[in-house]
Amino acid sequence: MGFPIHRGRRLRRSEPLRQLVRETELSPSDFIYPLFVTEGRGVRRPVSSMPGIYNLSVDNAVEEARQAHSLGIPAVILFGIPDRKDAKGSSAYASDGVVQRAISEVKEAIPSLQLIADICLCEYTDHGHCGVLSGGDVHNDSTLPLLAQMAVSCAKAGVDIIAPSDMMDGRVGAIRKALDEARFELVPILSYAAKYASAFYGPFREAAQSTPKSGDRRGYQMDPANAREAIKEVLMDIDEGADMVMVKPALSYLDVIWRVKQLVNVPVAAYNVSGEYSLVKAASQNGWVDYTRIMLEILTSIKRAGADLILTYHALDAARVL
Known about the structure:
- This protein is α/β, with parallel strands linked by helices.
- The protein has eleven helices and twelve strands.
- The strands form two sheets. Strands 1, 2, 3, 4, 5, 8, 9, 10, 11 and 12 form a ten-stranded mixed beta sheet that branches.
- Strand 6 and strand 7 form a beta hairpin.
- Helix 2 crosses helix 3, helix 3 runs parallel beside helix 4 and helix 5 packs parallel to helix 7.
- The longest helix is centred in the middle third of the chain and has 18 residues.
- The radius of gyration is 20 Å and the shape is globular.
- The two termini are 38 Å apart.
């Protein structure tokens, strides 16, 4: 029953035939595009470590979101870069904060585009950590009410989805309770459930101006060596009310995406993070790789591993090709 009766090449001999039998299809509707929103007007400041990505004032964020929507991308996720930072990240939950204003203006301009708010304090604190510091360490329980405040303020501004990324224990439950009490019981939560303490976040920290001034985040983000722990984190977040869960980063954690997908019955997202993006951009600019082919191969691998949604800085480029 082997060769020559069975020839694998029979189904590979032309592009139309390969398309016909293709197991994994990639589409712009799979993507969520991250936007970094800063104060001011007319600002479009390049992020040096992420070619093609910018810090955008609210007016330009609206136009970038409009472009994403026109390419068939159904959602954007917003990160804020405030002018003022303090120990408790108060700009994160201010009603007139930069992300809250961006939510309001983008939603007014493009009502059908799904807006996701990243809920974390790292961009808003003067120390760069994801919560309130106590004795040099992030104090978990003191941080939860502030994350809940930020979530409610974003919901009031008109956000469609809340996405907590801080990795505090119990934050999904605290946010769900706060949203429900504020009559936003229909706003879903996309939890960064398995977020690893990764070296792939470096360029993001330039883009979001969120590098910790001391220490690191390994005390609350996950150890890259652990996979079973990711399942524990995912199941805890679902028990607390998460409607969707995320694995971050994507490429070094395809096995984790696969494990999560096989276990849960909620949508699974994966974040194709800044370092993964920048490596591809740098290699392509040096002529070492074919940018389009490697970009699509990476995104396809993430979907093939089980991701229903892919957060990626490649979203515009990939959507134009697809």
